Amino acid sequence: MSNNRRAVFLDHTSLDLGDLDLSALRNSFSDLQLCAQTTPEQVVERLQGASVVISNKIMLNAQTLAACPELKLILIAATGTNNVDLDAARAHGITVSNCQGYGTPSVAQHTLMLLLALATRLSDYQKAVGEGRWQQARQFCLLDFPIVELQGKTLGLLGHGELGSAVARLAEAFGMRVLLGQLPGRPARADRLPLDELLPQIDALTLHCPLNEHTRHFISTRELALMKPGAFVVNTARGGLIDEQALADALRSGHLGGAATDVLSVEPPTAGNALLANDIPRLIVTPHNAWGSREARQRIVGQLTENAQGFFNGAALRVVS
Questions:
Q1: Residue 319 resides in a domain
Q2: Which of 9, 68, 93, 238 is most buried, taking the most CB atoms under 10 A from its CB?
Q3: Which GO terms of the molecular function aspect are on file (predicted)?
Q4: Helix extents (H) in 155-194
Q5: Are residues 241 and 219 in contact, defined by beta-carbon separation less than 8 angstroms?
Q6: Which residue among the candidates 45, 149, 197, 267 is catalytic per the annotation?
Q7: Would residue 243 count as lying in a domain?
Q8: How many Cβ atoms sit within 10 Å of the Cβ of residue 117?
């Protein structure tokens, strides 16, 4: 490989809000160009003469890679690789490395925050105070909305990797019993319950699995109906795992006790979404920010630096293609 160590970060502000230390990353290259955002039409032009591209969500397709002959390394500032044509990268001899496990503490605490908010009816009580209902109460407290204790309840986990395991530990700290579910498309395991056995037993369900052809909409009308009346659903994984219209219907019917999601099937939801309707009760939607603590984003910078330096030293890290 040539001595070219020029790099371009195509969507820098998707990671750095001005609160991160980029010095080690900068020092890994002869030149690092930071682009706040990049349109599809700008990608090829900006990558001319660069040997390294850093991208969080900007698409790098086969046509783009063919038009950037000096490109030798793609650093994905995330775990997901769906924004890169891995086959094309391989054909052009371009190494692709991602980041892994950086957001576990942030996403795990967000998951428990959502579950606690549902169990304590936090949104409803905040709204009631804002409307002056506590101020008008005849006693010292307001108990208009049923509060559920997590202790003694059963949590179903779909996905028990690093993140799912972290959520399980937090749930157990609250006194919950944790059961693991069998993911479709995976080999059966003795410690994983089939969905039809898992769902009727649990008081809450959290999702921590990838989105693929086996898991798309694997939680839909039938599966939600199998859950106990009053059960909670929390999704901090991928929006397409749950049939969003089915979830909206289950909440409107009163079957579920509440649901919370940090992800939607299309993001940002510029064309709307079934879960953004204003008549859905006991639903919390957060804007895919579970991963976004400063600490987690700084870990990404650290891994990008490690990946770049490893590549230049002939020992590439976290290689996905």
A1: no
A2: 9
A3: hydroxypyruvate reductase (NADH) activity; NAD binding
A4: 162-173
A5: yes
A6: 267
A7: yes
A8: 20
**ω before 184 within 30° of 0 (cis)?**
no
Q: Is 189 a catalytic residue?
A: no
Q: Is residue 321 part of a domain?
A: no
Q: Which of 70, 216, 288, 306 is catalytic?
A: 288
Phi then psi for residue 155, to 5 deg, are -105, 130
Q: Which of 155, 84, 175 is nearest to 115 (CA)?
A: 155
Q: Are residues 183 and 159 in the same domain?
A: yes
124 and 197 share one domain: yes
Task: Quote the CA–CA distance of 264 and 131 in Å, as a whole number.
Answer: 29
Q: Among residues 238, 282, 297, 318, which one is catalytic?
A: 238
Among this protein's residues, is 288 annotated catalytic?
Answer: yes
Q: What is the pLDDT, as a whole number, of residue 2?
A: 56
Contact 24, 301 (CB under 8 A): yes
pLDDT digit string (tens) for 160-182?
999 999 999 999 999 999 999 99
Task: Provide the number of structural domains found in the chain.
Answer: 2
Q: Can you list the residues of the chain whose pLDDT is less than 70?
A: 1-2
- Domain containing 307: what range? 6-102+294-313
Q: Using the 8-state DSSP alphabet, how is residue 58 labeled?
A: -
Q: Give the CATH number, domain containing residue 59.
A: 3.40.50.720
131/43 same-domain check: no
For the record, the structure tokens of 5 come out as 């160590």
Tell me the whole-structure pTM to 2 decimals.
0.90
Q: Burial level of 45, CB count in 10 A (0-12/13-18/19+)?
A: exposed
